């Protein structure tokens, strides 16, 4: 009798105590894993980014030139050599960017002649920036969502080549080195602690040739970012 009563009391205590223990447990394993993931994400920042634009997202600022150059694309690589972050992943970076841009007239544009002959043209430009980026955002839905603005001086080497549409022979070729400035804004969203996707809009001023034609028009870029841990700064903890 006593043994049965003891067993009943033990079982009752277990059934009553289990919910209390579960309620008192500060975090479940899933919640702890989520906090660890968040910590690993916000304590990292972009180190290298690769991006580019095409299919109508890359333009010349000069409206007359942009009307003719309609087959355009661009690619770039960023390296963030100095990154400063708060415990929430917000802060500023110093970066270097190498950009290659290609502008070309389609054959249909060459046929549009006004009072002068329009030769088929190609513009190839290589540019180097050293700039500052400020980035700010929040961690939610298991992702770090950050908006940013950036600005940089730019040095660019431009090669402008003209071709005869019928003979395909080179008619003229000129090279220029110019100084300008570029700015932009974008959004960066993490896929995980070490990878992120981004979209960015750029505009600037880059005078080329004696006419000072601005080749730094509206640019829409998309790309991927590799992120790693930042040395120093505040430790976010879990």
Q: Can you describe this structure?
A:
With 238 residues, the chain is of the alpha+beta class. The protein has one domain (2-229): Beta Barrel (Porin), CATH 2.40.160. It contains 4 helices and 10 strands; from the N terminus they run ααβαββαβββββββ. The protein has an 8-stranded antiparallel β-barrel. Strands 8-9 form a two-stranded antiparallel sheet. The chain is elongated, with a radius of gyration of 28 Å. The two termini are 51 Å apart.
Q: What kind of sheet is the major sheet? A: 8 strands, antiparallel, barrel
Arithmetic mean of pLDDT:
82
Tell me the domain tally.
Answer: 1
Distance between the termini: 51 Å
Strand order of the largest sheet: 1-2-3-4-5-6-7-10
Per CATH, what is the topology? Answer: Porin
What general outline do the C-alpha atoms trace? elongated
What is the strand content? over 45%
Helix content: 10-25%
The tally of beta strands, per DSSP, is: 10
Secondary structural class: alpha+beta
* Cα radius of gyration in angstroms: 28 Å
Q: How do the helices and strands follow one another from N- to C-terminus?
A: HHEHEEHEEEEEEE
CATH architecture: Beta Barrel
CATH class: Mainly Beta
How many helices? The count is: 4
Summarize the structure.
The protein contains four helices and ten strands, in the order ααβαββαβββββββ. With 238 residues, the protein is of the alpha+beta class. The chain has a single domain (2-229), classed as Porin, CATH 2.40.160.20.
Keywords:
disordered C terminus, eight-stranded antiparallel β-barrel, Porin, alpha+beta, 238 residues, disordered N terminus, 4 helices, two-stranded antiparallel ribbon, 56% strand
């Amino acid at each position: 009798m006593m043994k049965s009563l003891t067993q009943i009391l033990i079982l009752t205590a277990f059934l009553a105590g289990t919910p209390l223990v579960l309620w008192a447990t500060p975090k479940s394993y899933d919640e702890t894993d989520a906090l660890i993931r968040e910590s690993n994400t916000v304590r990292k920042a972009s180190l290298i980014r690769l991006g580019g634009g095409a299919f109508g997202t890359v333009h010349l600022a000069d409206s007359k030139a942009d009307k003719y150059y309609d087959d355009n694309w661009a690619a770039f690589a960023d390296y963030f050599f100095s990154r400063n972050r708060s415990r929430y992943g917000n802060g500023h970076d110093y970066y270097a960017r190498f950009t290659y841009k290609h502008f070309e007239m389609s054959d249909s544009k060459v046929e549009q002649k006004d009072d002068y002959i329009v030769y088929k043209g190609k513009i190839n430009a290589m540019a180097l920036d050293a700039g500052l980026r400020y980035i700010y955002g929040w961690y939610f839905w298991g992702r770090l969502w950050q908006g940013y603005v950036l600005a940089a001086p730019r040095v660019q080497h431009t090669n402008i080549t003209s071709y005869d549409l019928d003979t395909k022979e080179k008619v003229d070729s000129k090279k220029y080195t110019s100084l300008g400035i570029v700015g932009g804004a974008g959004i960066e969203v993490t896929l995980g602690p070490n990878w992120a996707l981004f979209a960015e809009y750029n505009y600037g001023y880059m005078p080329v040739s004696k006419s000072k034609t601005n080749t730094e028009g509206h640019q829409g870029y998309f790309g991927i970012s590799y992120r790693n841990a930042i040395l120093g700064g505040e430790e976010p903890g879990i």
